[in-house]
Recover the amino acids of this structure.
């Protein structure tokens, strides 16, 4: 039972363009959402989060959008840079800051020069 | 500030053995969580500790256990290893049980 789904295993984007990573969830109790980035041989690195009381949160080149009615969130990276090439995980929890995170399967983003 | 450290980084065991993995959180962090990452199941929550107490547990058999020490360092133990336990085990720490988690590099366990 996959409560958090990232349906695109991979995504390829040209440097300088926008990267859009998508995530869907099924558990209506999820109240807090996060994005992590993972390089090979390293642990996931926290990128950005959003609470269900918001529909958008921005941090530099990264923006997360949340559509609660559709149970969908997306991460926008603008402009995309070669260093952004990594695996991106979407995660959710029932309470903000709860340590029990439910992760998606990840999307491998490749930024082409 | 040093990040989360996990030891060992790589480990090879055989079926039926047991293994202990160690995690040292970021200085000042008192909450530690463990996750298992496999190609088939992805990243799955194992358990969470705060102030030496287990606060939450994921859906794993009793062969998986953990503990936290007074200095916030944590260990997880897997007994009677099975081939399916081969995975990357990740530890994450946070300042408290309601704060953002920061992950270590993981321990790659291979069970033969």
């Amino acid at each position: 039972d996959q409560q958090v789904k990232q349906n695109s295993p991979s995504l390829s984007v040209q440097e300088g363009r926008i990267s859009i990573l998508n995530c869907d969830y099924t558990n209506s109790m999820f109240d807090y959402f996060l994005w992590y980035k993972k390089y090979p041989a390293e642990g996931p690195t926290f990128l950005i989060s959003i609470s269900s009381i918001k529909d958008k949160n921005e941090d530099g080149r990264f923006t997360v959008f949340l559509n609660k009615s559709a149970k969908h969130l997306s991460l926008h990276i603008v402009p995309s840079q070669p260093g952004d090439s990594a695996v991106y995980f979407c995660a959710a929890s029932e309470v903000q800051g709860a340590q029990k995170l439910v992760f998606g399967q990840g999307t491998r983003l490749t930024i082409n020069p | 500030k040093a990040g989360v450290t996990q030891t060992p980084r790589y480990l090879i065991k055989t079926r039926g053995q047991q293994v202990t993995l160690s995690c040292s959180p970021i200085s000042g962090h008192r909450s530690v969580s463990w996750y298992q990452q496999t190609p088939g199941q992805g990243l799955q929550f194992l358990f969470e500790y705060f102030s030496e107490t287990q606060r939450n547990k994921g859906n794993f058999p009793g062969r998986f256990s953990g503990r936290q020490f007074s200095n916030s360092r944590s260990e997880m133990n897997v007994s009677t290893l099975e081939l399916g336990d081969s995975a990357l085990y990740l530890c994450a720490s946070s300042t408290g049980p309601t704060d953002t988690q920061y992950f270590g590099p993981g321990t790659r366990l291979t069970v033969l």
